[in-house]
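Researcher: Structure prediction, please.
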Amino acid sequence: MSSSQSLSVQRRSIFPLENDNWESIAAREFPDTPSEEAVANLQSWNLHVFMRRVTGKDSYRQMSQILPSDVVFLEPPLA
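Model: Predicted structure follows.
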């Protein structure tokens, strides 16, 4: 692909709202999908956020925060 070509299809994504979590994103973006299924899909499509290492006291118990600057994908990788 040359530098003058652009992507014709982009993967659907959002920037989260402040204080969003997996459940709130799933409810807003996938209202017709069961919550557990929607959350599992989001987490599998967003390992860069879901698996983020959290540091600090008792960090092994904390889930990573979703930040407003994170890109959260709303669909699996495109072929």
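Model: The mean pLDDT is 86.
Researcher: Thanks, that helps.
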